[in-house]
Amino acid sequence: MEYMSQEGYEKLVAELRQLESVELPRVREAIAEARDKGDLSENFEYHAAKREQSRLLGRIRFKQRVLEHVRVIDTSKLKGDGIGLLSKVEMTNLASNARMAYTIVSPHEASIREGKISIKSPIAQALLNKKEGDVVEVRVPAGIQRFHIDHIIRV
Asked: What's the pTM?
């Protein structure tokens, strides 16, 4: 079982609906058109459309399995002053003095572009249960990074 925010859950449901109601019918139509062109053994369009259908069905099954095992977090029941799932953490890299902010989310919601990191990432794992003012050491591929936790916001 995995936990997820309401926003992440709704986004996942919308992605699944898009795949099932728009993408899959489009691919099935492409297969039907390619099939009408004759000999299937040398029909590139047919084989490409079948590969796309297989890829799409795999994505649909994956998203369905995720939704079967996901639980939406009731943010009103989150308590504690330590960092946890759905915490927004503002921190400073002590080596470069660079300030950054990340929200810790489920792996299915992670998007570095949106400032959301997976709770399973090395940075999030090092931050769990820490408090404002703590200094955290994180082992990343580039070595060990040290961060000062400036501020924690419950989302």
From this structure: 0.75
Contact 66, 12 (CB under 8 A): yes
pLDDT tens sequence across 110-148:
999 999 999 999 999 999 999 999 999 999 888 899 999
Q: Which segments of 77-131 does DSSP mark as H helices, in order? A: 122-127
Tell me the backbone φ, ψ of residue 128, rounded to 5 degrees. -55, 130
Distance CA 75, CA 77 (A): 5
Classify the C-alpha dihedral 44-45-50-51 as positive or negative: positive
- CA dist 143 and 36 (Å) reads 57
Q: Hunting for tokens 């996942």 — which residue is that?
A: 12
Instruction: Return phi, psi of residue 79, to 5°.
Output: -140, 175
Enumerate the β-bridge partners of residue 104: 117
d(CA 86, CA 76): 12
Reading the block at residue 132, the tokens are 């404002």
